[in-house]
Amino acid sequence: MIVEASGKDGSCKLSAGLYVVATPIGNLGDISLRALTVLACADAIACEDTRTSGVLLQAFGIKKPTLSYHDHNADERRPDLMQRIARGEALALISDAGMPAIADPGFKLVRDCREAGYAVTVVPGANAAITALASSGLPTDQFLFAGFLPPKSAARKKEAASYKAGEATLVFYEAPQRLADTLADLSEVLGAKRPAAVARELTKFFEEIKRGTLSELADYYKDHSVKGEIVLLIGKAEETVEIDLDGLLAARLEKLSVRDAVAEVAEMTGASKKDVYARALKLQSAKEP
Predict the structure, then answer these.
(1) Which of 3, 107, 172, 245 is placed for a possible disulfide with 40 were both Cys, Cβ 3.0 to 4.6 Å?
(2) What is the pLDDT at residue 267?
(3) Which domain holds residue 196?
């Protein structure tokens, strides 16, 4: 698809300001028509990596000046970008994939533009965290996006401990080379049986959503190296209720036959009749002289 934005003079013009534009996280078909129009009409495009963004822009026939803006040059580059907007330019901001300003320095440019009174327009679209959450099967009524955990184990465990008592599904980004170690640390700190999911290569050909407990996923990825962008999701701890089968059975065996007591307790607790029956026989044999 080639974009040819045109006006009376064969060109298009956007109002001065910052345009935060979401781009696909994998599948190029996820770009929005509005995003294409804004990118085609902007005076310049600030990119996390101009080479990565160049592939996207070339795919849609968009030829605009690109400027690098990333973690390592954000503070140095920001004044120049602000000056461009002050001169009346429409500046688009994109990241390598997904929504800019989420876990990247784009938020600082948005902040400064807001403080300076410049118009800020967000063109929504794909986001890895939300896509992974919707695909995970974990609860979505409450969730906490916490970005990247620290790369060192001690710091990672310390930060993870602060999320232990939360009720929300936790959403993290993680690098593939750290995935196994991170899962092991989280299993130790948050609980081995905590439900979790690893989402990677979202919207791409090799998309994978792997679910399990934290310990199961830690064991799996210890032996399976992975590549690509990764979203790690952790559900809240499952509440376990200890069921006193012996107590329930003992009370009912005082009044009912073994068969009826077993049927009633099995229905109440969800335990298998075979297991309940075995417990009933043990109780009865213990009572015999």
Answers:
(1) 3
(2) 79
(3) 129-234
The DSSP string of 166-210 is: --SEEEEEE-GGGHHHHHHHHHHHH-TT-EEEEEESTTSTT-EEE
Regarding whether 229 and 134 lie in a shared domain, the answer is: yes
Percentages helix, strand, coil for the chain (3-state, rounded to 5) are 45, 20, 40
The answer to whether the pTM exceeds 0.90 is: no
* Distance (Å, whole) CA 260 – CA 244: 18
Report the alpha-carbon distance of residue 231 to residue 209 in Å, rounded. Answer: 9
Helix (H, G, I), strand (E, B) or coil at 79: helix
Return the closest-CA partner of residue 19 out of 96, 101, 127: 101
Query: Are 147 and 113 found together in one domain?
Result: no
CA distance 226 to 175: 10
- For the cut 50, the answer to whether the pLDDT of residue 87 exceeds it is yes
Reduce the DSSP state of residue 234 to 3 states and report it. strand
What does the pLDDT look like over 26-82, one tens digit per residue? 999 999 999 999 999 999 999 999 999 999 999 999 999 999 999 999 999 999 999
Residues 116 and 43 in one domain: yes
Asked if residue 1 belongs to a domain, the reply is: no
